[in-house]
Amino acid sequence: MKVQGLAERLRNKDEKALEEIIKIYSPLAAAIIYNISKGSLTKEDIEEICSDVFVTLWKNTDKVCDEKLKGYICCIAKTRALNKLSSVRNNIISMDEYDIEDDFSITDHTETKDIHNELREIISDISEPDKEILIRYYYYCQTTSKISAAMNINQETVKTKLKRTRSKIKAILTERGYEI
Fold first, then answer.
1. Which domains, from first to last, does the chain contain?
2. CA 162/CA 52 separation, integer angstroms
3. pTM for this one?
4. Which of 11, 12, 25, 99 lies at a C-alpha separation of 20 to 30 Å from 170?
5. Do 26 and 77 meet the contact criterion of CB atoms below 8 Å apart?
6. Sequential DSSP letters for the chain
7. Residues 21, 24, 27, 31: what is their CA dihedral angle, to the nearest 10 degrees?
């Protein structure tokens, strides 16, 4: 699987490059979508979201470079899956259950953006393998058993490391003035 140069070819609107990217990254995108949905989406929904991932990639070729291609595809897959889940849930909620306090506000968005920046900074300082376990669990939505198998670590060790890392992150965020 040669991925070097694909992003540049994609930026030049080379359809063959897109076909190669789809061939290489479709299984990963589908796995992320499936893991995020925890099996609640149909096969057709997953295929549709997966297709949308690569349409989005094609429309935003100017933002892609070889080093970040995989991460960019993963981010799109995660976002599209969460959007789909959100729309499915929103269709189920009746108007009687709607609470105006649940509405998104600019303040919420600013606070969310701030905490995400803090989290990025904190996670970048976490040592391995704790960092990889955290990213696999929260970013790639892998189960502890999958992480255990992939990293050749006991599943209970994975759970313990996740718990300790979350506690460390919570303590750091609390120190920085966030209410967790």
1. 1-101 (1.10.1740.10), 104-174 (1.10.10.10)
2. 32
3. 0.50
4. 99
5. no
6. ---TTHHHHHHTT-HHHHHHHHHHHHHHHHHHHHHHHTT-S-HHHHHHHHHHHHHHHHHTGGG--GGGHHHHHHHHHHHHHHHHHHHHHHHHS-GGG--GGGS--HHHHHHHHHHHHHHHHHHHTSPTTHHHHHHHHHTS---HHHHHHHHT--HHHHHHHHHHHHHHHHHHHHHTT---
7. -70
